[in-house]
Specification:
alpha/beta
């Protein structure tokens, strides 16, 4: 099998892995396929948290005997007992001849231990093929498994002159429908969505996923509300029994509990401490769609890993119009936060700049 063929098969495994997006958290996205005599005889991916892993699903879907076949898998097969038995042992049991892995698992419970099991059983192992693509696909999992804190992204939509709303706070709509639809795809990907209470008061935001013709999973809603001002008749409160709603506050009011809201009390709201708390709750990712103040505070407290900045070719002007990032900011340009791993996406006339901090 030449390199071009290997790349083709691994790209397919990565495509399969993406089908689990939004449903496997806090586990990684993993895809697997089995190739024998130049054709794919089995495909699988990790479909939902607690369910069979990609390798097992590929075996279950195989159209013929997998003995002496080559398996492509995007992440190193696990070697430990978790919610499911070790995949490395299943590969050995099925008498696979060769395993090609995109990325070694950074999880200390797994790292190189799966490879060792396979090699000790006489199975040939290669790894590192399309590793960068899997690093990008699983950036949420890789941060969470190594730090026990969620991967945090902020998203905002702004005009060409850097405004997120007019001076009257009108913001519907800055971007086009395609851009807004992609935002719902991002919401579907992240485990929690976080905003400041101002977004709830001014917009009565739903903070849910609205995608047609596909399976969705609504994120946990987290509202930063120090003084507990979230209206009882707001959408997030009245639907708290249907979609988990957590309010982070410095106060307490039992009335919210009756609606099904969870109150997270802190003596003084500190976003860094909040991220540690969320990590202990197995929240692996937070998508911040707040206003200027929430974005600024998140950047000031250095909890942000990624930025999604949508730019629309519109000009609204106004010295009192809102900008996307408030907070304290930096005093000198040399201290500005710089994005890396930048990707550009185009939604007709809108541009999305995506990058890591």
């Amino acid at each position: 099998m030449n390199k071009e063929e290997k790349i083709k098969y691994m790209k397919r495994a990565i495509e399969l892995a993406s089908l689990g997006e939004g449903f496997v958290n806090p586990n990684p996205l993993v895809g697997a396929l089995i190739v024998k005599d130049g054709k794919i005889i089995g495909e699988g991916y990790h479909e939902h948290y607690g369910g069979p892993h990609a390798e097992v699903n590929a075996f279950n879907n195989a159209s013929e005997s997998v003995e002496a076949a080559t398996m492509f898998v995007t992440l190193e097969p696990c070697s430990h007992y978790g919610k499911t038995p070790p995949c490395a042992l299943k590969i050995i049991e099925k008498k696979i001849k060769k395993v090609i892995i995109a990325k070694i698992d950074p999880n200390p419970l797994v790292s190189f231990k799966g490879v060792k099991l396979l090699e000790e059983a006489g199975i040939e192992v290669e790894y590192g093929l399309l590793e960068d693509e899997v690093n990008y696909q699983n950036e949420i999992f890789f941060k969470y498994i190594q730090t026990k804190e969620p991967f945090v992204a902020i998203k905002y939509a702004m005009t060409l002159d850097g405004k997120i709303a007019t001076h009257t706070k009108d913001s519907k709509w800055i971007t086009n429908e395609k851009s807004r639809n992609y935002v719902h795809e991002l919401r579907n990907k992240y485990m929690a969505i976080m905003v400041g209470v101002g977004t709830i008061i001014h917009d009565d935001a739903k903070l849910n996923v609205r995608l047609k013709d596909r399976k969705i999973k609504n994120p946990i809603r987290i509202i930063i509300d120090p003084n507990l001002e979230t209206p009882f008749d707001s959408y997030v409160v009245t639907t708290a029994t249907l979609q988990p709603t957590w309010i982070v506050t410095e106060r307490y009011n039992e009335e919210y509990i009756k609606y099904g809201v969870r109150l997270i009390q802190m003596d003084k709201i500190n976003l860094k401490e909040l991220m540690k708390l969320l990590g202990k709750e197995k929240i692996d990712s937070v998508f911040i769609e707040g206003g200027s103040f929430t974005h600024g505070s998140s950047l000031d407290e250095n909890i942000v890993d990624k930025v999604y900045a949508f730019i629309s070719p519109k000009l609204i002007g106004g010295k009192d119009a809102l900008t996307p990032v408030g907070g304290l900011g930096v005093s000198l340009m040399k201290d500005a936060k710089v994005l890396k791993n930048i990707k550009y996406h185009y939604f007709d006339e809108d541009i999305l700049i995506e990058g890591n901090i």
